[in-house]
Amino acid sequence: MNDTHTAPQTQAASACDVERIRADFPILKLEINGKPLVYLDNAASSQMPQQVIDRLVRYRTTQHANVNRAVHTLSEIATNEFEEARRKLQHFINAREEREVIFTSGTTDSINLVMHGYGRKFIKAGDEIILTTLEHHANIVPWQMLAEEKGATIRVVPVNDAGELLIDEYEKLFNERTKFVGVMHVSNALGTINPIKQMIAFAHAHGVPVLIDGAQAVPHMKVDVQDLDCDFYAFSGHKLCGPTGIGILYGKAALLERMQPFKGGGDMILSVTFEKTTYNTIPHKFEAGTPHIAGAIGLGAAVDYLSEIGMDAIAAHEHALLDYATAQMSQMRGVRIIGTAKNKAAVISFAIDGVHPHDIGTLLNQDGVAVRTGHHCAQPVMQRFCVPATSRASFAFYNTMAEVDSLVAGIRNVQKVFA
Q: What is the pLDDT of residue 13?
C-alpha cells in the first residue's frame, strides 16, 4: 500500500518555505523555560513530522499484527506494509534490489552485523582494517573487538587541522594485508563530508570492501549507493525524521549471501532440526525474531515526507544555514569553530574561551536553545584537536536563520555570564 494520502502539506514547498514545513512538526511549537524551542541537536536525533506520527498511530490502531507466516487479514496487511517500507528505502538510496535492504535497530546494529557476519568469517590473523580518526565509536569498537579476537590490526587515517582526511595517507595504508575499510560519510563531530566515492574506488582497486557509516549523510543529502559503489551502507531512522530503534543496512547481494547470520531465531531460517538448520534467503537471513514493524513503517513514511520536499532542496537550505551560522560565529571574539573543512554538512562544533561545554549547553538551554555537548562518541576526534569536548549545533531543514540568531545571542549571553 502506498501511503500517498500521508504526503506532507509541504508538497509545493521549496527549501525557503520553512514556515510551512515547520507547521508539520508539533514539537517545534514548544516553549522551553518560557522561550520558543530552538532545536539544534539534529545530529543526535531529528524531530518527527505529524505525517509520520499519524502513520504510526494508524498502524497501531488499525493494522497491528505480527508479520509473515500467518494467513489472517491483519497479519497480511502488516506484512505488506512492512515489505512496502523496505521497497521505499530501496528506492530512497537507489539499491539495486530490495533484498539488499536489511532492517536493523540502527547504525550501530548495522555495523555490528557486518562485523559479525562478514568480519568474523573473512578477517584472519595478521589482516589489517582501515578506519579513520573521524569515526564514531560505533565504527571503532566493533572492529577493535574483532581485531582482538582474530589477531588483526587497525590502521587509522589521520586528519588535518581543518578536520579533513589526508587522502594521500589513506592510500599509503594499503598493502597485501588490507582486508576491510570502514569510514563515515559525514563526521558527526565536525560535519566534514568525506570523499567516500574516491576512497571506495581506491579500496576496490585493491580488492578491499568498504563499509560506510551514513548516519549523518542520509538525512541531509541525496545518497545513491549504486553510484558510490559501496559494499555496505548503514544509517538510522531517528536521524531521518523517523522512529527510534529502526535502521538500515544496505549490502551488495553477493556479499550478503556469503556472510554468516549475526543472530539466530525465528524468520531467519528455512528449516530447523536438532541436527541442522538451513538459513533463509537474504534479507530475512539477517532479520531474526519479530522486527520493529511500526518502526519500519514509520521510517517508510519519513522517507516519503523527505522525498516530497526533495533532498536537493533540503541540502541547499541546510547549507545556507551553515554558511550563515559560520559567518556569524567566526566573527565572535573568544569563540572557536572546531572543524573547518571546505566540504561540510550543517554541523558546527565550537568552544568558548574559559567556558566548559556543559556550562555552555546549560546556559543555552535557559534561552530555549538545544545543542549537544560532550565528546559526541568521537573521542579520537577530541584528542586530535586537544579538547575534552565541544558544544555542537546541528541544523535540519526545518531550522531558520532567526534560530541561528538565537544561537548567537545565546552564546553572547554565555560570554557575559563568564566575563
A: 38
Decide which of 3.40.190.10, 3.40.50.150, 3.30.70.3280, 3.40.640.10 is the CATH code for 56-307: 3.40.640.10
* Torsions phi, psi for 37 (to 5 deg): -60, 130
Distances 305 to 229, 396, 418 between C-alpha atoms, Å = 26, 14, 43
Beta-bridge partner residues of 390: 374
3-state secondary structure of 190: coil
Single pTM value for the model: 0.94
Q: What is the pLDDT of residues 99-129, one digit of tens each?
A: 999 999 999 999 999 999 999 999 999 999 9
Closest CA to 301 of 24, 12, 15, 38: 24
- Choices 3.40.640.10, 3.90.1150.10, 3.90.700.10, 1.10.530.10: CATH for 10-39+310-414: 3.90.1150.10
Catalytic residue chosen out of the listed positions 16, 230, 241, 377: 377
Q: What is the pLDDT of residue 14?
A: 44
What is the C-alpha to C-alpha distance for residues 348 and 125, in angstroms, rounded to an integer?
40
Sign of the torsion angle spanned by Cα atoms 250, 254, 260, 266: positive
β-strand 128-132 against 153-157: which pairing, if any?
A: parallel
**Model confidence pLDDT, tens digit, residues 204-248:** 999 999 999 999 999 999 999 999 999 999 999 999 999 999 999
Task: State which amino acid sits at residue 37.
Answer: L
- Whether 297 contacts 85, CB under 8 Å: yes
Q: Residues 219, 46: contact at Cβ < 8 Å? A: yes
- Would you kindly state where each structural domain of the chain is located, as residue ranges? 10-39+310-414, 56-307
- Cα torsion through 178, 181, 187, 190, rounded to 10: 0
Active site annotation includes 377: yes
DSSP 361-394: HHHHHHTTEE-EEE-TT-HHHHHHTT-S-EEEEE
